[in-house]
Amino acid sequence: MTRAGILEGLGLLGAAKTHTLHAPTTALIAKLAPHLESHEIAGLLTDARDSKIVSFIGPGVLIRGAEHVYVLTKQQGVLQLQWTGVFRRKESFHYTVLPSNWKQADYEYRERAANYAAVHYGNQLQWDDSRECVTWFFMYASGPREVRAAYRRTWAEMLQLANGRCPFLQVLDAQLCAATLHYTVGAEIFGDRASRLVRVCGNCGGGIDADGCTYCHTLYTSASVVDSNTPAHLHLLEEVGLFDKFNVSPINAIKVHYAKWAADSVRQPTRQVPHDRVITFSGET
Ligand SMILES: [Zn+2]
User: Fold this and answer.
1) How many angstroms separate the alpha carbon of residue 156 from the centre of ligand 1?
2) Domain ranges of the chain
3) Hey, which of 48, 111, 122, 173 has its CA 20 to 30 A from 266?
4) Ligand 1: distance of its center to the CA of 41 in Å?
5) pLDDT of residue 207
């Protein structure tokens, strides 16, 4: 329940363009930072009403040791709550950069958020063992929908792994660590790393190249995002609940991707006769 509450609050902040909500309620802050006592939340609100800039942290929902940072300010007489990003504790992964202005006293305070997450829903948290972050853009007429995903290997390693032995999509499927539709939750799995950008068709889940969707041939004009001609993979679609949200089942585009791989003559192993099995006849030159 608690994790669901944090998710709900993060979803609200992530959906807002500037990640800011006006006139935040005590209940919302209690959802985002369930480790805080009610008198502590009241104290935060009082300080913010006194025109102080108040920041507090809340536990993550996906990655062990991730902490969301929120700021309460008063602007033109109205309180505003802003989500400013995610910090990662040292143990959560090796890319962590701790902000230089954290003081020793802050660590105890941070410990409470991490402990709360570990005690209340620790079995739903995972260690970050990902090496490649990918933002998938599902293209719709109304605009792209972003899915943030992390994989255990880099794109180059995954291509190398697939090289001739299996379809690339199969490796992507197997290497997925985490995926989310939430921008704010995505920050937990990305940390401070840049992400690879991939567009896929919002109609059928097919890969996109310069001529549009490679399966249903829908045209996409925006060239601001890299195309990789890679359809969305099953594990990703299931993880974020998008599998049955297409007009055309994504299974079709996936099947075609696999069929193309199987039909690619370049990848067919050349049949070679072992030397010791070559029979030669005397008299033959
Ligand atoms: Zn398509």
Assistant:
1) 25
2) 2-124, 132-267
3) 173
4) 48
5) 93
